[in-house]
């Protein structure tokens, strides 16, 4: 089913409001979910609405959160999320970080006690669109083994960086620190296909090719990815005083409780370094030079990070809209909330 941007966003917004989210929060959440779907990050778009709706309706996302922004220094602050919508908290915290970085050159804003905030590239892109460079990272449910381990300890702990160019392009690097997202395992399971032995491990920590035997995901790039996912947890968990490592709540364990997740935004004003015009000019040159590298066999082009997501967006609109799975469309159109589909499921909610 292909939907226009407006239709998809309004279906998601209405469903979130039906579940209990207030309009202002449903508007922001639906906007960011649409941002993901239109860029082809379907793992973080409409597919999540049913789960969020169950959590909202069961009280696991605070409807009237007491958001508090506490400046702890000229360049540092804590945004207290009160387990409200992670999308809204992360967006409002980035608004504040942008303001602080414009004023003082750099902003480090820790966001405490929030629910899932989706594709974190949305937040770094916000800063880049205001001529700033940004980094964001956050915790997620423990589902990846540390190198050499057999039990999950860290989440897919994503990291995003973004920077502006002189010509309207925005470089947005946005990735999970596991080889693959959990959604890709579910996809392979549903198709009855095997997975490469580099993606995941079984209950003993051995690599698996049968997606049904997967007990945990593997960090990307071995010990390097493991180190990155740990440091994401150090800076967005331990540093902010929220649960860390295996103590991070599972998305599905108890939908009536707040998730208490942490996220960190770091925003830098290039004006305090090389100067904004030179920074953007050189960013443009860098992207052009990458694009002009002769592709290796089997590749059509060298892309800069985020370029393919923009192309997917353009292609979607040129071909009649954003492709949404029929089942999800039917759910969004319906009056259902599906009260007991996710609650108390295993950590991967298969
Ligand atoms: P991915 O593997 O599709 O892409 C990762 C990055 O690599 C992107 O910046 C992309 O632009 C870049 N890239 C990919 N192929 C490229 C190529 N050929 N040339 C140049 N650049 C290329 O992303 P992944 O890891 O599957 O993450 C998807 C989304 O899931 C992200 O938006 C992430 O924020 C989100 N996520 C959110 C989590 C949360 O708990 N909030 C947890 C994990 C992921």
UniProtKB/TrEMBL annotation:
<dbReference type="InterPro" id="IPR043144">
    <property type="entry name" value="Mal/L-sulf/L-lact_DH-like_ah"/>
</dbReference>
<keyword id="KW-0560">Oxidoreductase</keyword>
<protein>
    <submittedName>
        <fullName>Ureidoglycolate dehydrogenase</fullName>
        <ecNumber>1.1.1.154</ecNumber>
    </submittedName>
</protein>
<dbReference type="Pfam" id="PF02615">
    <property type="entry name" value="Ldh_2"/>
</dbReference>
<comment type="similarity">
    <text>Belongs to the LDH2/MDH2 oxidoreductase family.</text>
</comment>
<dbReference type="InterPro" id="IPR036111">
    <property type="entry name" value="Mal/L-sulfo/L-lacto_DH-like_sf"/>
</dbReference>
<dbReference type="InterPro" id="IPR003767">
    <property type="entry name" value="Malate/L-lactate_DH-like"/>
</dbReference>
<dbReference type="InterPro" id="IPR043143">
    <property type="entry name" value="Mal/L-sulf/L-lact_DH-like_NADP"/>
</dbReference>
<dbReference type="InterPro" id="IPR017590">
    <property type="entry name" value="Ureidoglycolate_dehydrogenase"/>
</dbReference>
<dbReference type="GO" id="GO:0009040">
    <property type="term" value="F:ureidoglycolate dehydrogenase activity"/>
</dbReference>
């Amino acid at each position: 089913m292909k939907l226009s941007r407006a239709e998809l966003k309004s279906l998601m917004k209405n469903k979130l409001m039906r579940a209990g989210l207030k309009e202002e929060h449903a508007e922001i959440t639906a906007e960011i979910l649409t941002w993901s779907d239109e860029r082809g990050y379907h793992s973080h778009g409409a597919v999540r609405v049913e789960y969020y709706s169950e959590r909202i309706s069961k009280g696991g996302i605070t409807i009237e959160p007491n958001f508090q922004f506490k400046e702890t220094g000229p360049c540092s602050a804590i945004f207290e999320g009160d387990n409200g919508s992670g999308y809204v908290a992360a967006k409002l915290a980035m608004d504040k970080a942008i303001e602080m970085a414009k004023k003082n050159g750099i902003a480090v804003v820790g966001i405490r006690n929030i629910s899932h905030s989706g594709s974190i590239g949305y937040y770094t892109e916000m800063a880049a669109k205001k001529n700033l460079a940004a980094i964001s990272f956050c915790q997620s449910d423990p589902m990846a083994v540390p190198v050499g381990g057999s039990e999950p300890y860290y989440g897919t702990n994503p990291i995003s960086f973004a920077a502006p160019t002189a010509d309207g392009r925005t470089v947005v690097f946005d990735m999970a620190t596991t080889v693959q997202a959990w959604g890709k395992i579910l996809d392979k399971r549903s198709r009855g296909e095997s997975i490469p032995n580099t993606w995941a491990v079984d209950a003993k920590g051995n690599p698996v090719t049968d997606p049904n035997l997967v007990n945990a995901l593997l960090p990307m790039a071995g010990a390097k990815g493991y180190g990155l996912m740990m440091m994401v947890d150090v800076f967005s968990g331990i540093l902010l005083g929220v649960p860390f490592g295996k103590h991070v709540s599972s998305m599905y364990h108890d939908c009536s409780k707040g998730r208490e997740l942490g996220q960190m935004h770091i925003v830098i004003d290039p004006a305090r370094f090389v100067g904004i015009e030179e920074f953007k000019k050189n960013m443009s040159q860098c992207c052009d030079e990458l694009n002009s590298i002769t592709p290796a066999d089997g590749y059509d082009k060298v892309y800069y990070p985020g370029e393919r997501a923009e192309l997917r967006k353009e292609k979607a609109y040129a071909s009649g809209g954003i492709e949404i799975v029929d089942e999800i469309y039917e759910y969004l159109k319906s009056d259902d909330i599906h009260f007991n589909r996710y609650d108390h499921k295993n950590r991967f909610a298969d």
